[in-house]
Amino acid sequence: MVIEVLEFIKTCIRRHRIHWTYHVNMRLEGRFIPREAILSSVDSYEIIEEYLENKYLPSYLVYAEYKGEIIHIHIATDLKNDRVTIVTAYKPTSNKWKEGFKKRRK
Predict the structure, then answer these.
(1) Tens digit of pLDDT for each residue in 43-95?
(2) CB 57 within 8 A of CB 84
(3) Which one of 57, 76, 80, 81 has the fewest beta carbons within 10 angstroms of its own beta carbon?
């Protein structure tokens, strides 16, 4: 299932079937992450966490690499409308994430 979801996410990103929330637009600017980082890092996407019981839509935390930097992208999947919603994105820090930035510290 995760691989199918990952392919759905990647396909939506490549086809620009994306809803950008107000929240992510504000966060990207404040965190100095260009939209291009999300769009062009699609080949490096890996799902590292699942939030299947999210309030509105199932969502996933995606690991990505862009120009030598690691970013995490929270993406909700809207299968019915054939699109994804970018909820937020950030650069993970070693105080919250283990080496490799794919597993949370406890």
Answers:
(1) 999 999 999 988 889 999 999 999 999 999 999 999 999 999 999 999 999 99
(2) no
(3) 80
